[in-house]
Amino acid sequence: MPEIAGPSPKTLARTISTWKLTATISNAYGSILYQFFDPSTQDGIVPLLDNIEIETLKVEYTYQGTKASSFVIDGTLMLGSLPLTLNFTHDSKEWSFDANLAFSQDKPQTTTIGDVAAHIFGPDLDLPDFVANITVTPPSEEAAGLKLSSADSTEPGKKDLLFTAWLNLGIFRFEAIQYRPAQKKDETTKPPAQRMFMLTIEGIKVANLDLIGELPQPFDQLLFLFVQRQEDNTAGLTKAEVDNINERLAAGNTKLQYKNTKKNLKDEDVVIPYGMHFMVLSKDLKGESSVVLDYVFGSGTKKQTLTSSSYSAKRPTAAMFVDEAASDPAGEKAPFEKTIGPVTIRNLGLKVTMGSPSSLSVLMDASVLLGPIGASLLGFKLTLKFGKGFDLQHLPAPEAAIDGLGVSFDRSPIILAGIFKHVLDAYQGAATVSFQPYLFQAAGFYGTITSKTGSKFTSSFVYFILNGPLVTLEFAEIRGVTGGFGYNTSLTYPTAANVTQFPLIDTPSESDPQSALLALTGGTWFFPRQNSFWLAAGVTVIAFEILEVKAVVVIEWDPKIKLGLFGVATASLPAGVTHPFARVQLGIVAAVDFNAGTLKIEGQLTPDSFILDPSCHLTGGFGLFYWFGNSKYAGDFTFTIGGYHRSYRPPSQFPNPPRLGISWSYDSAISIRGEAYFAITPKVCMGGGRLDASLSLGPLYAFFDAYADFLINYKPFHFTADGGLSVGVRFTLDLWICTIHISIELSARLYLEGPPIAGTVHVNFWVFGFDIDFGHKEPRPNIALNIDQFIEQVLQADNSNVAETIADAKSEAPPAHIFSCNQGLIPSSEKDAESDPNTSVWKVRGAVFQFTIGCKFAFKTASVETTDATDHKTYIIEEPEETKKNDIYAKPMCLQSPLSSDVAVSISSMPTGMLITSMEVDVPLWNKAEMLPKSVPAALWGKYNPANDPNNPSNTKPNQNGDLLKTTDGSVALPMSIQITSPVPVLSTDDKLPSFDYKTFFIKDAGDERHFPTTKDAKPTWLPDQDGENLWERVRSQWNGQPKLGEGATEQAVKLWADLSFTQWHVGESGDVSWEKPSELLEAETFDTLFLEAPRMGAATA
After folding, report:
1. Is 787 exposed, middle or buried (0-12, 13-18, 19+ CB in 10 A)?
2. Residue pLDDT, tens place only, 253-282
3. What is the DSSP letter of 323?
4. Are 1013 and 966 in contact (CB under 8 A)?
5. Is residue 226 a contact partner of residue 279, using CB atoms and an 8 Å limit?
6. Which of 447-461, 946-960, 1064-1078 has the highest mean pLDDT?
7. Which of the residues 299, 403, 414, 1047 has the least number of beta carbons within 10 Å of its own beta carbon?
8. Helix or strand run (H / E) with residue 81
9. Is 260 helix (H, G, I), strand (E, B) or coil?
């Protein structure tokens, strides 16, 4: 508590007009001094001196008459553990507030930066150890001090306050700043005090590197800056605030600096964020410094309020803020060019690692040139590890490290380049070898990956590209190959728009393997994924010297199979000229994902495509998408060239290629633009085009615009179209005293339908218009197909055979049902296995037999009838839930009531004479069957609505049919196939095979002479030939001569064995088995070396 001594003869003296009052204060805080300041500054004193400890104060007032004219306050303030001698004077005109170190040479004072900062900013700081633990011992009274000053504010009658404190230890310098602007009239709350301190750091020690030598500090100066976050402000100091602080700092103080990130900074722009900073400064030739890098790595405030420290118990803390900084913040780099000996630095960065011990790393993108060999130091850094007596005042020796090395050699005609990186648990590498005209590049990755769940797995991939003339054919040349594989790695499939950037297609740079490595490991195309594998192979072909095709095939298991075919085709006409007449480059992507149930085929012209002139651009693309299997869009499809009808909004899963068009701006006077499109969806077919042309010659402007949009129906074929045409001329004549504008425009709207072709043209000329009808104008036909025509359409009958048409014969309709065996098929021959199952007889395993009957006509009910000699059984198949709500309609038949369609499957036994039982067995009921639904086009199986029919005469706007242009209800789910599984096998009760009496063979009396049954002697015909003279020659002559059974006997024997179903021999000239004798082996010189002993022939053969 303050202690004030009252008036006494020693402390109060009176003269004629002067009075003096002396008082003492001890154990207080600086905020108690606010009452000694004038009203213009009192509001800002409390937040600036609130945390300053007062050990003792002596206040001496001087009175002139009855009013105080001046006072002097002397005493001791504490800055950490450093005592400061205060000198605070105030008279009627001005005041001064200064304090300097109470230096004692006999007992030097020591403190830490953490204690000093806490006495200025409060105890809620959370500074890193390499700042808070810095121990300082000022060498003189001028080495430590503080100063409080005021300056006129922009607010009349108010003062801005500035508090500065410093510790000066030579190069190392601590400077604290508190700035409190005056409150403005329109402000409802008092502005907070801005608080910060800086540490000017001594240079980093020289690092000694192998092969390079000494590497000094690469920058001019390193500065640590802490800016305390204020309540209700999470951004930082604005440009205006920094300028105001610098303007009020004395000449000896260090000015605040910031990195300029904008060309035109505004006063309200934040230039120094709150938190802890490391700033890299660079000095120019004039000695003026600028910020190269501002690295922010933490807030510097504690997460929780201090409750146990003695300082907190003695003094309440201010509001606490949450520390939003990560415990291990990421590094940051900025452009920085400097050459030190053989080392060239391109980028410079910093990274702080918090923990025990903490560290500061100087990151550099550096390269070293040693003669013709250049080396890039990847992830090169100098690390300062703090702790054990090391901090920002006492810097440790830097430790050099690199993450990888890139090496290049460039001496024509050879270019060699390579790169290798080791980051955490991963290894990455790439290499390039160029020897004109060949270029080889390879890259790879191997590492241990930790998934989100914490499990670890090994991931790797490798790819290579070889470009150069490899194989020359008559009309083409193979100029390159590519390949790769990935283990526990997933591959992102490209689109038609970015396939030219796909690493397996894009031609790499000859001397930059790092860019290829970044393309692979940057996460755009390849990324780790457990249980995912891929394999790729590709080729580059040049045909007729004008067409270049790059194609890659990719197979991926993820874990289901995905297939991809990606390519880029480039044609340039004529070949080998600087300015070709035309250049067309098309990117193609085809992918099948069996798990997702998608088939996607896309193509798109690249921006490099043109004709006549590079300014005459070609655009456009196509897409064919189909969904099947488990996809939620199963049965849906689309095909488009150049997009869709202008009123159609395609679903997100549909391809949306650009219009197929041409755009030409010639000499800035003539502009021509044309486009076209065609598309088929499950509901409608559409097409159209547009042509725009304009001429601009000074005051004259002319234009021509035309467009057309079609909706097309196939059966019956009919189309409707809307179009427009507009022609106009504008002329502006400036006559100095007036300007004359002349404008003429003629437009027309076209409605067209057919067949027969007919339509209406509405001509609009200024203020009047008229219609022109042309063609055979009749009501639009509304022809509905009959059931036979509809079935023909469903079966897609082929009547295009010209020969049969001329003979007045009808082509055979495709089958209405497709049979396919799912399980249990036993192929009797390779030909039967590959043949049409509808026309072949199956041999199956009855126990696991399962087959599917696919129906081209939808059905609602189905049954399986089982028939044998004595009974007739029927099993009704239950309809799936998802199709019960959908009835069968036929939109081409204009049906508004549902159709009925039934399927009956009959299964009966056929006598074969091969029964193994003597009794008749009933055929079991086949009751394991189910309907399989399928999404089918609504244009074929949907319900007919006259209002949505473009051919309906009542439809006044057939080309703007809202329902047809909707993207929903494009398909309907109906039963389209039946899957039948064989019933459980019936056990036989009457076996023709006699039982095996094992006792007869295994139980015998001991001592029986016949332990085994007596075998019969073989027929003499099958016995081997007896030994004799000239056995070798007899065998060779017999094999080389005619068989005993006559000419052709060997051929008949081989064919006899081939006809047996279990052998599955392939005979003939190109078959596996031949009856021709091996003449080369039967030569005497060869035959004698084939056997160790002469082969034995049968007696019949001999």
Report:
1. exposed
2. 889 999 988 888 888 899 999 999 999 998
3. -
4. no
5. no
6. 447-461
7. 1047
8. none
9. coil
